[in-house]
């Protein structure tokens, strides 16, 4: 379980995460939604020990994030932030290999190599293994980053807007893949999504944030309601049912 | 493979190029007591070893700096580190003129370390993607520090002796005057051992933290490696421009930036590059020598321009 207890983070006087208590990890895929500035990325930064909270406690499987050695946390929790810009000229294989760093500390064993091969295979990157990252398309690069996170072989995987800059096909591919890692590999994935319909069709649980607080939390059918979505986004959202699935209509 | 062959060939040539005749034939004819043998041990071997150590370690200093800053256009000479170390040299000349060379190196290294820290602080305010802005900021920082150094050196009538120190040349390298470079060599070993950590640091703080690495500690180790190499080279050979920039970039184009894989290439290519330049410096106006920094500067500047234009034309 990733457990937050009364966690607060302020920038100046503004609380970006405001006395938040929540647990993640019971469900396979949890989608975090909410308007810009709701505190979603900050929440990931806090769990991923990139940002220190001003108050409250965070724990991953009972390990206090503030006091547990970073190298131990790296074996149970992987965080992929958004807008990953890697200036270094690395091949796909190099990048995925670094995902094993928490386990190998740079000395690869047979087990590490198996994980690397499996992750590359899983993301269908076998043909790109020795390609440099700057020679890949946005979608391929995003898959390489996800392969790296998978090779890290952690129970918890946090992905901040993994669909950024992806076209429709790659978006769907990544979402299916996330679903599969949860169902087949038993991962607990938490991801930030802007596309609420994607969240509704792929996530077991949707957590809606606004102004640093959780305003709705539950399975898709509980969150995908006009009244709830309007409260989250401050804009009129209609919800229709198509083939038994709730679909938000927010154009027009 | 090619680099290895070149290395051995050039190192061999370096032993036998010079004003006095030191050839294998002369050595065999004269035996171990001859002038040729004395010259070999006292001058040619130290010079060749010094060149190898300088080339390898400056390449590594550039490589590590590029990983820490995540920018291809930085090296100690474009970030103010060399200028700070030179200021350190001036301080020892003024306040501790009798200090042994190792003490001078220590002070220069301390100033270089401070310079690295200042640069890393300043550069935090520049977005990572502003590729050209980062070295520009570094060059400006270096310019300010160099101006301060020149001002005081001028006032204290030390400009000439400072110039002699800073002028990159191996002409004065002899037995007993180059051994501090082994400290730079030691830093290469440190970088080699920590190679994977520097690769991960090159992915940025967020990736490094996610992978359980203590970002600050690895950066601190990298800063020490850079500062000590810069200072050791400065007190023995002077300023060798562009090397730390050009060598890692050329290697990166071919091998990529996985430090574990690229580090032997950077060290080897750096050594070959300086060896070749030093031999050119010795033969171009034979029997006189021109400063190594001139040769490296000319070749390095051309390569640097090529790299700049090349990266500009590549679509991102």
UniProtKB/TrEMBL annotation, chain A:
Species for this entry: Blastococcus haudaquaticus
Topological relation to the membrane, as annotated: Peripheral membrane protein
Localization per record: Cell membrane
A single MF term (Gene Ontology): ATP binding
Full protein name: Iron complex transport system ATP-binding protein
Gene Ontology CC terms, in alphabetical order: plasma membrane
PANTHER family recorded: IRON(3+)-HYDROXAMATE IMPORT ATP-BINDING PROTEIN FHUC, PETROBACTIN IMPORT ATP-BINDING PROTEIN YCLP
Keyword annotations of the record: ATP-binding, Cell membrane, Ion transport, Iron, Iron transport, Membrane, Nucleotide-binding, Transport
Principal location: membrane
Domain (ABC transporter) ranges: 2-236
GO biological process: iron ion transport
Automatic annotation (TrEMBL), chain B:
Keywords tagged on the record: Cell membrane, Membrane, Transmembrane, Transmembrane helix, Transport
Spans through the membrane: 49-69, 90-120, 132-154, 180-198, 218-251, 263-284, 290-309
A Gene Ontology cellular-component term: plasma membrane
SUPFAM superfamilies: ABC transporter involved in vitamin B12 uptake, BtuC
Recorded coiled-coil stretches: none
GO MF terms, alphabetically ordered: transmembrane transporter activity
Major localization listed first in the record, in broad terms: membrane
Record localization: Cell membrane
InterPro entries assigned to the protein according to its UniProt record, in alphabetical order: ABC_BtuC-like, ABC_transptr_permease_BtuC
Membrane topology field: Multi-pass membrane protein
Pfam families registered for this protein in UniProt: FecCD (PF01032)
GO terms of biological process kind: siderophore-iron import into cell
Family in the record: Belongs to the binding-protein-dependent transport system permease family. FecCD subfamily.
PANTHER family, per database record: FERRIC ENTEROBACTIN TRANSPORT SYSTEM PERMEASE PROTEIN, PETROBACTIN IMPORT SYSTEM PERMEASE PROTEIN YCLN
Name of the protein this chain belongs to: Iron complex transport system permease protein
Organism whose genome encodes this protein: Blastococcus haudaquaticus
